[in-house]
Amino acid sequence: MSAHLYELFIAPFADFVFMQRALWGIIVLSISATPVGVFLTLRRMSLTGDAMAHAILPGAAIGFLISGLSVTAMTIGGIVAGCVVAVLAGIVARHSKAEEDSSLAAFYLLSLAVGVLIISANGSNVDLLHVLFGSTLALNNDALILITIIATISTLALALLYRPLVLECVDPHFFKTVSKLSSVAHYGFLLLVVLNLVAGFQALGTLMAVGLMILPAAIARFWSNHLGGMLIVAFISAVLSGYFGLFLSYHASLATSPAIVLVLGLLYIASLLFGRQGGLLFKNNNSL
Amino acid sequence: MIKINNLNVYYQNDIALSNISTTLDDGDLVAIVGPNGAGKSTLLKSIMQQITIKSGSIDLGDLSLKHIAYLPQSSQIDHTFPITVTEFVSAGAWQRTRFWRAFSRQEQRLLQQALAKVNLVDMAERQISQLSGGQFQRMLFARMLLQDAKILLLDEPFSAIDAQTTALLMTVINECQQQGKTIIAVIHDLALVQRYFPSTLLVATELIASGKTKDVLTQVNLVNAGYQHFSHCAIHNVFSNELNNLSNKPLNIPAKNDIINIEKQTS
Predict the structure, then answer these.
(1) pLDDT at B259
(2) Chain B interface disruption, residue of A40, A171, A225, A232, most B CBs within 10 A
(3) How does DSSP assign chain B, residue by residue?
(4) What domains can you pick out in chain A, each with its CATH number?
(5) Which of A134, A196, B62, B141 is most buried, taking the most CB atoms under 10 A from its CB?
(6) Taking the domains of chain B in order of start, what are their residue ranges?
(7) What is the ipTM, given to two decimal places?
(8) Binning pLDDT at 50, 70 and 90, where does residue B242 land?
(9) Domain B2-214 carries which CATH code?
């Protein structure tokens, strides 16, 4: 029995290096991306995260155009494109009558179209699929090192920005009166979003990277009403989903990144129903 | 001393404050009153340099912005953010802890004192989303006390709270004044101003009147500031003994609910 369980749950990760690399990538990403996701949802910017994820595509595509499937070139392109779109959307929102969300949507649709056009005109469908949906099981050393470096920088930066970010979220007017770090917190945070999305797209693709950010945060909201608790729940749910997503992908031959996001989705639905902080069934029990 | 000299503030092309000049002494307890859109909050934000002023100046004397504590309107705060009362109030120590320093025992003690002053010790570990309107306002006061600033700017500190909480918070304000702090508060309830605030600035984009509250809150000034129901009430001889004439005498202003009742009766 235990041998069978070992074969089912442990062996794929013990026997195959590509599974170990994939799991390492997901765990490292979970450490840095989930806290950023928690702050994104608390600031009611989940859709901004989604829009930014699309926005990095043309940058990655230009990197691809120059150097093929080079991790460094695509990463630098992605970071530049993500930052440009975030700043442009902010400027348009401040200097025109358009709301920030509509200008962000306009920019990301434009970016997505440009990115897909560049890759489909200069590469194969396989290349396009790689950029859009990632290739978790094909993470090489370069990609893993890059993900780890970005995750380390992001986690350290978030630790430094933690207090300003909390104040910027809860009471921005007060924060502006006691500190000049308000803009630093806002734009620094957007930069962290871009960095994590760029790190995430190596493993999960541009379309799925945001899933590892937003879904764990959305799950955590149903289990904890404290920021520290939310950060822990979000991290655990991301790691669990990463493990079971890879497990499903290995045994059922499913595409990896959609499998991971699907497990996260199932956890979200379970939390929506049974979560003790506002879950639907929990609410009903209370009202009975 | 806060010296405001010929202050003009615009929001794009709309004038928000016009030619405001006044001087507030150290230890003053001043109410800023005026109808909606009169520029009261804008005046506070101008003092804090949160908005760009078109012309004029604000001189804080020996003090600087770090000596100002601001109590924002409750509606501007995210009540759903998952932090406790203690965590929220601890932000008052920002000038001393910044974003890197640990919260020392001394700060812990000051925080407990601030919570005790507003009767919130029992709720220290409660989530801010679980607080009532009055409790939330007391928490804002605790954070302001922890700032230990020389100038306190309060934006509508008593809106939507009961009389008991108002009395408690007024005690806190009076203690601060006795310590020599300058307190400037935007207040909507004129009865409250008349009862608790010795000095008043009456603003309606421009400065209608300033000085002792009893000299500022006259019928003429209030009607000039755009408080239409005071001219309405004059006709019905509710606040003034002088029929059909606007009076320069101090008004006996009833509480908000009474005004609403009077307006119902007269309509």
Answers:
(1) 45
(2) A171
(3) -EEEEEEEEEETTEEEEEEEEEEE-TT-EEEEE-STTSSHHHHHHHHTT-S--SEEEEE-TT--GGGEEEE--GGGS-TTSS-BHHHHHHGGGHHHHTTTS---HHHHHHHHHHHHHTT-GGGTTSBGGG--HHHHHHHHHHHHHHHT-SEEEEESTTTT--HHHHHHHHHHHHHHHHTT-EEEEE---HHHHHHH-SEEEEEESEEEEEEEHHHHSBHHHHHHTT-HHHHHHHHTTSS-SSTTS---SBP-PPPHHHHHHHHHHH-
(4) 2-287 (1.10.3470.10)
(5) A196
(6) 2-214, 218-267
(7) 0.82
(8) very low
(9) 3.40.50.300
